[in-house]
Amino acid sequence: xxxxxxxxxxxxxxxxxxxxxxxxxxxxxxxxxxxxxxxxxxxxxxxxxxxxxxxxxxxxxxxxxxxxxxxxxxxxxxxxxxxxxxxxxxxxxxxxxxxxxxxxxxxxxxxxxxxxxxxxxxx
Length: 123
Fold this sequence. Notes:
Elements: H1 9-26, H2 30-52, H3 67-71, H4 79-110, H5 115-122
Helix pairs in contact: 1-2, 2-4
């Protein structure tokens, strides 16, 4: 069995999320914190993809025009996890872009990416 198979994707995404959370808490560098935030976003997207993945689901939209399709309606994929995943990707990209812009400004003013040095500058 492969640890990266679909059966283990939920466990892997939850573990990756909390590993990235631990990394954010313990990192002393802003760039590493940004990377851990990106890992948390990836873990959330993986979790939503796993929830929306059905091995028996048809790749068809859940629009039913005929009565015979109503019998097969249980095999149609749910579009909600797909919409949430797309929204999470867009919001995550926007947040990372804003964070990198703020980091650029912060680095130009203080010439450091260390959380400890920045705390000393604030005090």
